[in-house]
Amino acid sequence: MGKVVLGVAVAVAVTTCAVAAVVVGRRVRSRRKWKRVVGVLKELEESCETTVGRLRQVVDAMAVEMHAGLASEGGSKLKMLLTFVDNLPSGSEKGTCYALDLGGTNFRVLRVELGGQRSSILDQDVVRQPIPQQLMTGSSEDLFDFIASSLQQFDENAIDFEKSSIRKELGFTFSFPVKQTSVSSGILIKWTKGFAIKDMVGEEVAGALQHALDRKGLNMRVAVLVNDTVGTLALGHYHDADTVAAVIIGTGTNACYWERTDAIIKCQGLLTTSGGMVVNMEWGNFWSSHLPRTSYDIELDAESPNSNDQGFEKMISGMYLGDIVRRVILKMSQESDIFGPVSPSLSMPFSLRTPLMAVMHEDDSPELTEVARILKNVLEIPDVPLKARKLVVKVCDVVTRRAARLAAAGIVGILKKIGRDGSSGITGGRSRSDIKMRRTVVAIEGSLYTQYTMFREYLHEALHEILGEDIAQHVILKVTEDGSGVGAALLAASHSSKSVDNIQLL
Q1: Which of 62, 111, 288, 323 is buried deepest, with most CB atoms within 10 A?
Q2: 108 is catalytic
Q3: Which stretch is the leader sequence (predicted)?
Q4: Per CATH, which fold does 83-226 belong to?
């Protein structure tokens, strides 16, 4: 009997040891898997590091590239395009002006009543109209005739365009690649956003619209042809005379600023009555070896239709941030089964959009329920443990923080170029306390900045770190909504007194 009991005891002990070994083995493997996933995060944090020193290097690089782009065509990744907008709204504009905003599959018509004093918009009306699909691939005449007809019907009870003896000024915002030739003319380089009207490529854009207006008997003149960034600067300056630059950070990103004409070396002999001109930087194409690029950025760029272009945009704009996060989560899934089997949605480019990434990032619920919901419904990753959800939030934070801090460095780069950063233009120099800083306003627009709280906070934080508190207090980022519409109308009003351009090339 004793031997039987002893045998049972030995068997139980062996079984217990075996079970314990299995449990310990599972824990060890689990720890190894978790360690690999944390390693992916740590590598991401190191690759995305944006110390103040590094950001100041980006600032210097931006200023240098701006100089190079102004010195010669093709001298920089920054195109530094002349807009021929040589005066900004002063507030003295009075009366009715119109704007047409064509930026995609919809267009808008605006009517703005100005009161003759700064920031005195008495009234404004807006009508949004979809463009029929067939007109996006038809002829230029059909497209612009349709737009002119819509303009003709707009507010027809308030004004009879055909019988009016007073010519109305129209600002035309055209958000497609254009080579500007004057303040009111530009050549279409190529269509984007689903348009493919072959007979328009290489042709003058504002002229095509003007011909359509004339055919409809509308007594209107296309006074300015601009992009949305220039419109934002115009509206910002109308509200605040200290506005010197404008930045859009949304799905895409761009910036423009007011430059002295004598600094635009590639157009020697350029004269304007104001002594300055708005320059469209096209800063999305900025590149520098100081930008903290990761393997995920490299893969995203290689797989994009415009590889080796828009490098800055791909690191800071809303089009791409969500997909960078998706790629990191995919790498974590490949390193470990912490997220379960790799789902088809997780492997699909751009399946995670930036607005949803922002929701995950700003989820402050104890169980991170929004994170769980988006992982399940969008990326098809169900039953993610809480510690893994926390990891996802951290990934969102790293990617967003890098983007916002780089955007801040870009803004300071502009300020440095025009001597508004407190360093007196000293490359690599820190802000000087003996420089008297002028109040400097940057108009800013775009959903990434206006709607993503953490992005905005990180951008402001970096701006203060780069400039220092003494200088940063003089720099104001001011949200300026609808520059692409109202700003274009204001520019039409500010250029309405010109029968000819006040710009000469000697």
Answers
A1: 62
A2: yes
A3: none
A4: Nucleotidyltransferase; domain 5 (3.30.420)
